[in-house]
Design a protein that fits this description.
The protein is of the alpha+beta class. The protein contains 3 helices and 19 strands. The protein has helices at residues 4-42, 135-163, 169-195; strands at 74-80, 83-105, 110-115, 122-123, 128-132, 197-199, 204-206, 216-217, 222-239, 251-256, 262-270, 280-287, 299-316, 321-323, 326-333, 336-347, 351-356, 363-365, 378-381. The protein has a 6-stranded antiparallel barrel with strand order 2-9-12-11-10-13. A hairpin with a 2-residue loop joins strand 15 and strand 16 (336-347). The longest helix has 39 residues, at 4-42. The protein is elongated, with a radius of gyration of 48 Å. 16% of the residues are buried.
């Protein structure tokens, strides 16, 4: 017979065992529900409602059908190739040069006695810029003029004696030669004196200077600069393969890098040789620069138009795929992607000319290029 204490222990153990079983059942149901959710959410069934090919089943012909049906075709945008107008242009970089430019230097040594340089101001040809102390040269000229007067009198007397045959012809030639030599020395002294007065060699604009009256200068010392900036020259170079297409008189579009303004210049000279290092043809154009728009030394972009075509084939830049062996594009033929090798010509930021590989009417893929492979079914939209 069980005692009263044993009966109480059995009664307490029975509810505890039932609660554990219920807990395990709840956990198992929760795990099963989680698996079902994952299956439905991330691994949906590709079959329809019925196993026998009912609505939405494998054999359905509607848009909800499986396999490689119409809904599985990748939608891509295409560009239909057609003839377009194309300007054959060459883009290059160039520099602005003064039409004439010279560094004004002193040819003599001495102190500057007068200075007529107005920095940044225009001057006329022959206008005095500065002068150097020329007292010694002037004194030497006066001395030589006295000598010439003496030698001229001697030559006149010797000629009279020669006419009367009192002296030989050799004695007269010595006197005459002495006179001629003195006259030549006088010309040299006057030329030296002219160097003491430095004048503008042409019309232009003066640069800056550090010279002042009293500055001692040596031969070759730089005093200032003189530049003619109306007109200006535009120096640039085109690839050698275009050398035969550039002509004197061609118009070029010049864009100032600092202001982004465009100007029209005209080619007036071509270098007779192609640069052997860069393989480019040096070209020089001229711009009137009536309002001083372009400054010498400025960096400019140059576009030279070589011709214009009315039947060029162009495609969007994003459609052309660079490869190791050249270039290719993806086309749509019969609802499938077909790659084609092409050759390119002139290119810009938005379009590229196709010189070989495409024909008018071809549909070139411009979007989804990374998602398709040769032979994939695609659905083209313009």
């Amino acid at each position: 017979m069980q005692t009263k204490e044993q009966e109480e222990i059995e009664v307490m153990q029975e509810p505890a065992g039932k609660s554990h079983r219920v807990l395990w059942i709840v956990l198992a149901l929760a795990l099963l529900a989680g698996l079902v959710f994952v299956k439905i959410k991330y691994f949906p069934s590709t079959t329809g409602k019925g196993a026998g090919g009912g609505k939405g089943g494998p054999g359905a012909a509607g848009p909800g059908g499986g396999g490689r049906g119409g809904a599985q075709r990748l939608a891509v945008q295409v560009y239909v190739v057609k003839p377009t107008n194309l300007s054959d242009e060459v883009a290059a970089t160039g520099s602005v040069l003064a039409d004439e430019s010279v560094v004004i230097k002193s040819e003599l040594s001495g102190k500057i006695t007068s200075l007529h340089i107005r920095e940044g101001q225009p001057v006329r040809k022959g206008q005095l810029l500065f002068s150097i102390n020329a007292d010694e040269a002037q004194a030497a000229i006066r001395k030589q003029e006295y000598n010439i007067k003496l030698f001229r009198d001697q030559e006149r007397r010797q000629r009279t004696l020669l006419d009367k045959e009192y002296i030989s012809a050799q004695e007269y030639e010595q006197a005459n030669n002495q006179l001629l030599t003195a006259q030549s020395d006088l010309q040299a002294l006057r030329a030296t004196l002219d160097k003491a007065y430095v004048k503008a060699p042409f019309d232009g604009v003066l640069g800056l200077t550090t010279a002042t009256v009293g500055t001692y200068v040596s031969p070759g010392a730089e005093i200032t600069t003189l530049s003619r900036i109306r007109p200006v020259k535009i120096d640039f170079a085109v690839p050698g393969r275009f050398a035969n297409n550039v002509r004197v008189g061609d118009l070029v579009s010049v864009t100032d890098e600092s202001t982004n303004k465009q100007y029209e210049a005209k080619v007036y000279a071509l270098d007779p040789q192609i640069d052997p290092v860069s393989r480019t043809q040096p070209v020089r154009a001229r711009y009137a620069n009536a309002k001083n728009e372009l400054r010498p030394g400025a960096f400019v972009r140059v576009n030279l138009k070589l011709g214009e075509s009315t039947d060029a084939l162009q495609v969007p830049t994003e459609s052309v795929i660079p490869e190791a062996s050249g270039y290719s594009v993806y086309t749509v033929q019969g609802g499938k992607m077909v790659p084609k090798k092409v050759k390119i010509g002139i290119r810009s930021d938005k379009v590229i000319q196709i010189t070989d590989g495409l024909a008018v009417g071809d549909s070139v893929i411009r979007t989804g290029i990374l998602q398709v492979k040769p032979g994939d079914a695609v659905r083209a939209t313009k």
